[in-house]
Amino acid sequence: MENESKDLRIRSKVISDSEKRAPNRAMLRAVGFRDEDFKKPMIGIASTWSEVTPCNVHIDQLAEGAKKGARNEGGSPLIFNTITVSDGISMGHEGMRYSLPSREVIADSIETVVGAERLDGVVAIGGCDKNMPGCMIAIGRLNLPAVFTYGGTISPGKSKEGKDLDIVSVFEAVGQRNAGNLDEASLKEIECHACPGAGSCGGMYTANTMASAIEAMGMSLPGSASNPAESSEKREDVEKAGEAVVELLRKDIYPRDIMTKEAFENAITVVMALGGSTNAFLHLLAMAHAVDVELTLDDFEEVRKRVPHVADLKPSGRYVMQDLHNVGGVSAVMKALLEAGLLHGDCLTVTGKTLAENLAEQPGLKEGQKIIRALSEPVRASGPLYVLKGNLAPEGAVAKMSGLAISSMTGPAKVFDTEEEATEAVLNHEIVAGDVLVIRYCGPKGGPGMSEMLSITGIIVGKGLGEKVALLTDGRFSGGTHGLVVGHVAPEAQVGGPIGLLKTGDIVTIDSEAQELSVDVSEEALQQRLAEWFAPPLRYKRGVLHKYARLVSSASKGAVTDL
User: Fold this and answer.
1) Is 437 helix (H, G, I), strand (E, B) or coil?
2) Distance CA 534, CA 520 (A)
3) Average of pLDDT values for 536-559?
4) Which pTM does this prediction carry?
5) Other CB atoms closer than 10 Å to residue 547's CB: what's the count?
6) In this structure, are residues 167 and 55 in contact, taking their beta carbons and an 8 Å threshold?
């Protein structure tokens, strides 16, 4: 080991040394510390374990593995917990308003514990959509040697016919049932078999998207993104992460050395190639803000134009993350992207090596695999995640166009101020082919919390309207959503954005190729409507959602709360 004589206690020394810190040490002795432990760096193992979601139900065991690795490498590790909420369980009702704010609670809580306890390094283990960026925002703010480890993907469920199932299968089955194409027993069968165990939702949804992005950024070990939750590879992954963070202390490598502008471009490249979740926009913008990297929606567009979409992964494709793992994983995809000159290979990573050096040691994609296409024969010539602008979204909006045969739609708006009202309209067959369904006052402030809308989009797809009805919102979408949907419309309705001025019957145009989101209403008429508009009161008068609504920024800035 290098620099064995070097004191790695970059912050904990304030507790470990000096007679006047005897009371501080007495508290640590009560949790198991001995004299020799105070001579070693104190490593925090930030665990997002919880029984409220399968994504995180196994992370207590993974945290023990990370603790073992840190101890074996010469650290004094301590496990602490933070919260998580399940998007799948909170979807489609008031609970979803807490989802995005939980990202800030998680980041704040990790920063608070590490700061208060004067820990020297961090291993953060996340499993569900918001605790991964939450962990990374905290890591960025703290700028202490750190490694992120993904809890891993769930295995696919199986229908009685042997077809792969996941959580999106259940949401879409609700729409099929409403359309009369599925009986009650079949719906129950899908419900009971979609989620067979621990791990995050299986397609290229938000959890797997963010895990892939973080590995591409160099902040997790090679293979971490695609090693399944219940696998020997994942157990090895977390133990090595514990070892790696102590080695980062020896080498004086910090998150801001790794999380550079080029590293964020690598993350966006992998998201585009895999056809990831639109939530990557929000989370990568927020992570960049945490390390003072200037990242904008325009940067996403620059990358999208040069990176092909090559993955046949759900929700628009056929396969899930475990299938990708079986043919080489995210590292193998990155290896192909690097060879094509689409990644910055000289970026530093948590191994202490460059991205190119890491990938040189990784195998490529297996011969004959069908999940990742050749870059010369992509699903799409450019990435599927578009930024749209126009008189309805001066700051921008985000659309995911993968799996769609159409690239544009012009039609009459049917406007609703809540998702619940819009869902009732869909279930009552009031939304028909050609309509542009608008759901507003769902943004970061107006929701508050920018609710995901997998429930209503699943119903629309299940009813056979996925490419016949467009959905436009200042809220956002699950990584499991597909269909003609546009979210993150900014400015949002709550602050007087143009989406708040729409009226039912206005003709709206969504055009991904022209990157346009507009309404056929003159600027003069929009200004007149704005003069007559007034902001509704915030939905909550106290508590976390009130605080969030007061502090949160625009979706175009990542919906951060510390501007």
Assistant:
1) strand
2) 22
3) 97
4) 0.95
5) 15
6) no
Distance, CA of 99 to CA of 85 (rounded, Å): 7
CB 495 within 8 A of CB 470: no
Residue type, 515: Q
Tell me the β-bridge partners of 508: 411, 519
Task: Describe the strand order of the beta sheet including 121-126 as a list of residue ranges.
Answer: 76-81, 42-47, 121-126, 146-150
| Whole-number pLDDT of residue 4 | 61
The two structure tokens encoding residue 460: 């629309």
**What pLDDT is attached to residue 480?**
72
Query: How many angstroms separate the CA atoms of 257 and 353, rounded?
Result: 12
State how far the Cα of 247 lies from the Cα of 253, in Å rounded to an integer.
9
Measured CA distances, 563 to 117, 150, 292, 293, 560 (Å):
26, 28, 11, 13, 7
Q: Where are the beta strands (DSSP E) in 8-82?
A: 42-47, 76-81
Distance CA 67, CA 70 (A): 5
Mean pLDDT of 471-476: 96
* pLDDT of residue 1 exceeding 60: no
| Cβ pair 362, 332 in contact under 8 A | yes
Residue by residue, DSSP assigns 94-108 as: GGGGGHHHHHHHHHH
pLDDT (tens digit per residue) in 368-405? 999 999 999 999 999 999 999 999 999 999 999 887 88
> What are the respective helix, strand and coil percentages of the chain, to the nearest 5?
40, 15, 45
Nearest-angstrom CA–CA distance, 49 and 106: 12
For β-strands 42-47 and 76-81, DSSP reports them as parallel
**Is residue 179 predicted with pLDDT exceeding 90?**
no
Q: Annotated catalytic, 455?
A: no
Question: What is the C-alpha separation between 240 and 416, in angstroms, rounded?
Answer: 50
Question: Strands 385-390 and 393-400: what pairing?
Answer: antiparallel
Residues 6 or more apart from 67 whose CB is under 8 A from it?
A: 45, 77, 79, 242
For the chain, what percent of residues have pLDDT higher than 70? Answer: 99
* Euclidean distance between CA atoms 61 and 89, whole angstroms: 23
Residue 426 CA: distances (Å) to CA of 431, 455, 458, 461:
5, 11, 11, 11
Residue 243, H or E segment = helix 232-251
> Residue 162: its pLDDT value, please?
85
Vertex 68, ends 65 and 74: CA angle to 5°?
Answer: 145
Altogether, the residues listed in the chain come to a count of: 563
Active-site entry in 50, 169, 478, 554:
478
Return the beta strands (E) in 335-374 as ranges.
none
For residue 153, list its beta bridge partners.
200
Q: What is the pLDDT of residue 404?
A: 83
Supply the DSSP symbol for 407.
S
Choice between 455 and 39, residue whose per-residue pLDDT is larger? 39
